[in-house]
Amino acid sequence: MIDLENGALTGRRARGGIEYRNTLYTAEVEEMISKSNVLTPALLRISEAAQIAGCGRSKAYELSASGAWPTVETPYGRRVVYAGLLEWLERLQEGR
Questions:
Q1: Whose CB among 11, 18, 44, 61 lies 3.0–4.6 Å from 1's, allowing a Cys bridge?
Q2: DSSP states of 48-73 as a string?
Q3: Residues forming beta bridges with residue 15, ordered by sequence position
Q4: Cβ atoms 41, 35 nearer than 8 A
Q5: Considering Cα of 15, then 26, then 42, then 53, what sign does the dihedral take?
């Protein structure tokens, strides 16, 4: 779960019977993208941003609606600004 007031990931999920903290750090995200040999898009769909942040689609829509994630309206729908999402992840890592 993401605490919107404090900007922190607080939930736990069980995978294979092992609990782990649901935190995805910016360095890990950048490493995953660099290994994929794919150009990084400037804008992401809400579902794509949720996958990068490690949260559900509903929480992603909540974060974008609250202004925690910078978004822009395009002719194809609302998109999350990739650079802004990375900044948000860095702030979470720093605890701000």
A1: 11
A2: HHHHHHT--HHHHHHHHHHTSS-EEE
A3: 18
A4: no
A5: positive
Distances (CA, A) of 60 to 19, 71, 72, 84, 94: 22, 11, 14, 14, 20
* Structure tokens that stand for 12 in this block: 């736990």
Instruction: Tell me the C-alpha distance between 19 and 68, whole Å.
Output: 27
Task: Give the distance, in angstroms, between the CA of residue 69 and the centroid of all CA atoms in the same chain.
Answer: 8
Q: What angle do CA 1, 51, 10 make, to 5 degrees?
A: 15
To the question of pTM greater than 0.70 for the whole model, the response is no
pLDDT tens for the chain, 96 residues: list them: 444 444 444 444 444 443 344 445 566 666 766 666 667 788 999 999 999 898 999 999 999 999 999 999 999 999 999 999 999 988 888 876
